[in-house]
Amino acid sequence: MSHNTIGQAVVIGAGIAGLQAAQVLRDKFEQVTIIERDTLPSEPIPRPGVPQGRQANALLAKGLAVIEELCPGFTTRLADAGARTLDMCRDLRMRLDAGLAPVTQPGPLFQLSSRPLLETTLRSLVTEAANVEVADGQTVTGLSTDSTPLRVTGVRLRSGDRLTADLVVDASGRTSHLRNWLTEQGMPRVRETTISAGTACTTRFYQAPETPTRRMGFVAAQQVPHRPVGAYILPIEHHRVVVSLYSAKGHDPPTDDGFEQAARGLHELCADILEPLHPLTHPVRYGHCANRMTHYDQAPWWPDGLIALGDAVCTLNPVYAQGITTAALQARILRNILAGDLGRHWTRRFQHLARRELAWPWLLATAADQEWINQAHPGSNRRRGLPDRLANWYIARWRDHVPTSPYLYREFARMMHMLDGPASLVRPVLVIRILRRPPLVVMD
Ligand SMILES: Cc1cc2nc3c(=O)[nH]c(=O)nc-3n(C[C@H](O)[C@H](O)[C@H](O)COP(=O)(O)OP(=O)(O)OC[C@H]3O[C@@H](n4cnc5c(N)ncnc54)[C@H](O)[C@@H]3O)c2cc1C
Question: For 248-290, what is each residue's pLDDT tens digit?
């Protein structure tokens, strides 16, 4: 802990964003208290506050690298707990519109586990610090404030108690009430943008035989308009396999035994992987997959003593698997700010920097979803901006090269894993290859 520590930080939510925030706050604050409404299980099992625990939660290579940077030792712990380490381009097969991606290496290395294992591993690491504690089974119902200029001084709990804090971090995820709480404090309602393609995901967990199977995993991309169902079939801990089907509006797979038929029917490789597996759970559907940005960075004023990060600020359609990684990137911004001279209004600066970090993932997720919306409502095409249309066009062209170019596939996989940002995606060597006419590929 540094010499000039501040007093108490309160983090709302012990999800992935809250845990990472706590990890970086512990060096600056004497005490960090995470308030979590769920009673947290000691075993890695799904819990009510995190319904995505029953769905596939892939940790992208970039997210893994940033979490490791913030929480040294995390990668080893997760692997020791059973997570699978995979090379994206060697161990997973990917089906795109133009055909199957080639088997090549090295691709991005990443770790696959269930969401509950990921979370309990991170929680055990973060809460080892003497000044970090989790108060579970407690729900935050509002903010305590000082009047002019407005400063957040703590939180109110459902129990009626109040907790004072020098900093409150809202990491309460998709169900965050922060917008309402700020309105109660007199702030005009903060603007929100929602882009929903009506995507749902339906997931079932399976047990694989202990002897390794030939195929490890499979990814089938959705593509507008003729491939409304995509799939992630991913090996996770304890020889389990998670099968998630992502569906555009009106194309949801059944949540009974018809689910397996739908999965097998996607490609012969899906049927091949599923053949030796035994179902462990019933298929579960999750339908709230909209992209939503709350523009806290544009609020007319921002109270001292408060920041918000993770899904509480921006939720992304989970089909792109970016949420955990963007939470990690925001926690890293927080660490960097805390490491310097805080100065006045640093919490407002944080919201601006976080918004800037979110620009690229937001564009990637919403540009593709806008295609689905346009398909359903052709008139909405006019609302698309040039960056969206360019991004879609460029990525579609790139995808068409993937089946015939191991190089372009590896680069594509780096983009998917958020290892490369916008600047490196327009490198001349890449652009020239992508802009060439893609060869014709026999559709599989
Ligand atoms: C179906 C689905 C699949 C996903 N798949 C992926 C994936 O493959 N890869 C990926 O990177 N991301 C994925 N995501 C997104 C990812 O789960 C989140 O972006 C990530 O977990 C960061 O979330 P968070 O910590 O902000 O919120 P959460 O993980 O949702 O945690 C919020 C926490 O706050 C608690 N809480 C809420 N309100 C209160 C309150 N008032 N008081 C106290 N506690 C409160 C909740 O109980 C919860 O524990 C997926 C999301 C969904 C919905």
Answer: 888 999 999 899 999 999 999 999 999 999 999 999 999 999 9
- d(CA 166, ligand 1 centre) in Å: 25
Fold of 6-57+115-194+289-362: FAD/NAD(P)-binding domain (3.50.50)
Ligand 1 proximity of 9 Cβ (cutoff 6 Å) = no
Query: For a substitution probing ligand 1, which of 24, 37, 245 has the most ligand atoms within 8 Å of its CB?
Result: 37
Give the position of tokens 């940033």: 66
Residue whose CA is closest, atom 35 of ligand 1?
Answer: 13
CATH for 200-286 (3.30.420, 3.30.110, 2.40.160, 3.30.70): 3.30.70
Provide the H-helix boundaries in 285-385.
323-339, 346-376
pTM passes above 0.70: yes
* Closest alpha carbon to 57 in 405, 372, 412, 323: 323
Whether 49 is in the pocket of ligand 1, judged by its Cβ within 6 Å, is yes
Write down the domain spans for the chain: 6-57+115-194+289-362, 200-286
Give the position, in ligand 1's atom list, of the atom nearest the Cα of 288.
Answer: 53
Q: Are 293 and 309 in contact (CB under 8 A)?
A: no
Chain centre distance of CA 168: 22
Maximum distance among all alpha carbons in the chain? Answer: 67
